């Protein structure tokens, strides 16, 4: 993309209403625009990041054998009357009447609707196990929306639901979700720690939250310093292998890591003192096993091998897709702006032309632009008539992980400068070498 | 995907409520489930088609230089009060109050909000031309939703908006949209004819609808028999070249083609009699030029080269993404089921194992499955313990363009059967030859 033809409305001033770094930086980098309290337009740069995150979530869900579908944003109130939640939910539920005065609501979550889909179409245990998920906009009418997309009212969430014959099967689904989530966050360059959690209004016997460590997190967290060092890395996982999947879950949940909701001081104090960590965390996902809480009242049953009929065991599993954009920035920024991990960056590399209009600089930049495209990478080429300082400031603000600077002196010596946004380190090399180096970094992801 | 692990709830019975082929077939093929009047869940097979269509729309918009973003589904009423449409819109607008009693609405279209984004961030003519678009769920509270996703209430639409300094520039944007739409529909295997249209409630000086010929279309259409023969084919288009783009528009709009709204009997009768065609059409897109209708009342102005200030010239351009799924089926089906064009098929090829459990059949199917994946294609492998007849009926119903049948007799002779869904013709060949043939068909798209 050529910046002269893009729509990247960066702000020079820091918006007064933004209290945390991610909100400030998303506004300044032209990623979002607030349309009303807690409701945002995703401007082109923000939309690109949102799509990258969504894509990673899809890929990892499909890898785990989960099946995508899409439920609508609006739901009939009657479904929620069946589960008893229509009256229980409170003012965070956005209630709507249509022109025929029928009660509807903007879905804050989808347990009822997915259970309705299941009971309409599945009759036999032979059709299990089954895990269905979607990535769809939700609405929760927060009384005080704040922190930008971190606590918005209209937000994008992945929510998945498993249907299993037995509790044991459902706990395998739970474990499968935990492992797929670990891989999802790692691919984004995030360390998200699974922590035992309270079940809250959705209910459930077993539940973990995934928390990203960040000073601005809403939860206080207590953990063993060894926990953030745990990595899945590039190991291959057979999601059908119960022992293997359970083993990974054990590896990631045995050491102490809890939020203030479930914190146990005595257990915490058993950790060697030098490893005891207290900090703050941002919740970016949660997994639940809740058994037959919805299948029983809503009649989601299957025939069993011995001619019986039983309600299925279910769980629900969420990833906050739009919230992740904020969490990623909270965990990856400095005083100059955002620092995108390679896995989610909106553009793979920035090209800065120090002397727009100079024939050799222009043609070197165009050649770089084409070379990256041939590697399947998307560069953002700052081809504006602007001072070098302004171009650098924009690139630092929007946070592309790699920047190539092209100037007349360098080009005369067949050199460009490759700069790493995270370390600030620059290196001179030929344009070809710079392309190869950046391409190799992305190929290794 | 292995069918034994998929969620494909095909129906044996024809649902009584469905009046047209696409609605019937989408229900029978397990593509959608109605959740309330005019509001559908997209089950896995339907969701896959929806995503393929969305992807083609994105690719062609980006190719034309248009920039994607994403506006929220809910909008503040105040924006619509500025344009005067809040009171004018009528009961099709779904009006909502939040917990603080603020007036909101579920967006039926986005002229106001995109104009608000523009005026907040663009000041100079130098930032033009600019075309922004999104693909987002909309809501229109139809009094009698019907025909499945063809006239639903919650529907997915691509809507794009151009901002230009002059009328001449805006008409180039209009033409650019026309050409990009022609290519979009062609890639889906559809013949969609641009027809001069009435401007309707959005207002506008210049507008064309795109209609797909189908007996169940809601509009009567009158056209020269030569019009449906016009094709863009694989010609390369330079979207910045005004003459070239205008030339293509002329090529596609000079021959007579109109809906009943703008039909002119005298002009129609000038066509040689044997070429006069009367039929029905489904609207799958519309482009509008409407000048300063929104930019003036909403103050979307830019500074001009001579220090003046003028409201920008705008247009809006829509493609009915979810409706296209229905339109595609109306135009591509027979008595056995759907016939997907290769460009939008949910799976590229079906594999039918005639003798599940037979070692040679099973291993031949597994080898085919892997071979297609290596070509970047997605097969649907019917690995269920089912009669051949039931497997064929399912494949015919869901309409994958190509099917490979593997049976013990064929495998003994190193043969499989490759069947074309559209023609019904079958051919025996080696498994390798079948993979190569199918891969070549998709590679040519």
UniProtKB/TrEMBL annotation, chains A, B:
InterPro entries: aa-tRNA-synt_IIb (IPR002314), aa-tRNA-synth_II (IPR006195), aa-tRNA-synth_II/BPL/LPL (IPR045864), Anticodon-bd (IPR004154), Anticodon-bd_dom_sf (IPR036621), Pro-tRNA-ligase_IIa (IPR002316), Pro-tRNA-synth_IIa_bac-type (IPR004500), Pro-tRNA_synthetase (IPR050062)
Keywords linked to the UniProt accession: Aminoacyl-tRNA synthetase, ATP-binding, Cytoplasm, Ligase, Nucleotide-binding, Protein biosynthesis
MF terms (GO), sorted A to Z: ATP binding; proline-tRNA ligase activity
PROSITE patterns: AA_TRNA_LIGASE_II (PS50862)
Record GO biological process: prolyl-tRNA aminoacylation
Gene3D superfamilies documented for this protein: Anticodon-binding domain, Bira Bifunctional Protein, Domain 2
Keyword Transmembrane: no
UniProt feature coiled coil, ranges: none
Domain of life from the UniProt record: Bacteria
Catalytic reaction list: tRNA(Pro) + L-proline + ATP = L-prolyl-tRNA(Pro) + AMP + diphosphate
GO cellular component assignments: cytosol
Subunit structure: Homodimer.
Function in brief: Catalyzes the attachment of proline to tRNA(Pro) in a two-step reaction: proline is first activated by ATP to form Pro-AMP and then transferred to the acceptor end of tRNA(Pro).
Family affiliation: Belongs to the class-II aminoacyl-tRNA synthetase family. ProS type 2 subfamily.
Name of the featured protein: Proline--tRNA ligase
Organism encoding this protein: Thioclava atlantica
């Amino acid at each position: 993309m050529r910046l002269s033809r893009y729509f990247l409305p960066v702000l020079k001033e820091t918006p007064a209403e933004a209290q945390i770094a991610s909100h400030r930086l998303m506004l300044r980098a032209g990623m979002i625009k607030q349309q009303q309290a807690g409701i945002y337009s995703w401007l082109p740069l923000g939309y690109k990041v949102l799509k990258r995150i969504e894509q990673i979530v899809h890929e990892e869900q499909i890898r785990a054998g989960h099946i995508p579908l899409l439920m609508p944003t609006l739901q009939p109130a009657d479904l929620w009357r069946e589960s008893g939640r229509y009256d229980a939910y409170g003012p965070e539920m956005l209630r709507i009447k249509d022109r025929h005065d029928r009660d509807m609501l903007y879905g804050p979550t989808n347990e009822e609707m997915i259970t309705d889909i299941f009971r309409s179409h599945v009759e036999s245990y032979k059709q299990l196990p089954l895990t269905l998920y979607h990535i769809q906009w939700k609405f929760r009418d927060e009384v005080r929306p704040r922190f930008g997309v971190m606590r918005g009212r209209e937000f994008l969430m992945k929510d998945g639901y498993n249907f299993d014959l037995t509790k044991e099967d459902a706990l395998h689904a739970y474990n499968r979700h935990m492992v797929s989530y670990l891989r999802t966050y790692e691919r984004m360059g995030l360390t998200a720690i699974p922590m035992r959690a309270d079940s809250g209004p959705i209910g459930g016997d077993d539940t973990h939250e995934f928390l990203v460590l960040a000073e601005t997190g809403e939860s206080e967290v207590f953990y063993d310093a060894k926990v953030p060092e745990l990595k899945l890395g590039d190991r291959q996982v057979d999601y059908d292998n119960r022992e293997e999947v359970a083993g990974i879950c054990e590896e990631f949940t045995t050491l102490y890591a809890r939020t203030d909701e479930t914190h146990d001081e005595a257990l915490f104090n058993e950790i060697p003192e030098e490893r005891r960590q207290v900090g703050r965390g941002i919740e970016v996902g949660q997994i639940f096993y809740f058994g037959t809480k919805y299948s029983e009242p809503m009649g989601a049953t299957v025939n069993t091998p011995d001619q019986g009929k039983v309600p299925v065991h279910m769980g629900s599993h969420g990833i906050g897709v739009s919230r992740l954009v904020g969490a990623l920035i909270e965990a990856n920024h400095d005083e100059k702006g955002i620092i995108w991990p390679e896995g989610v960056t909106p553009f793979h590399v920035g090209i800065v032309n120090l002397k727009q209009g100079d024939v050799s600089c222009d043609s070197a930049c165009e050649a770089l632009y084409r070379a990256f495209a041939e590697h399947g990478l998307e560069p953002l080429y700052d081809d504006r008539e602007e001072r070098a300082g302004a171009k650098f400031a924009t690139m630092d603000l929007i946070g592309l992980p790699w920047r190539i600077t092209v100037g007349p002196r360098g080009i005369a010596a067949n050199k460009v400068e490759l700069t790493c946004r995270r370390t600030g380190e620059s290196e001179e090399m030929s344009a070809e070498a710079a392309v190869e180096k950046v391409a190799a970094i992305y190929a290794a992801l």
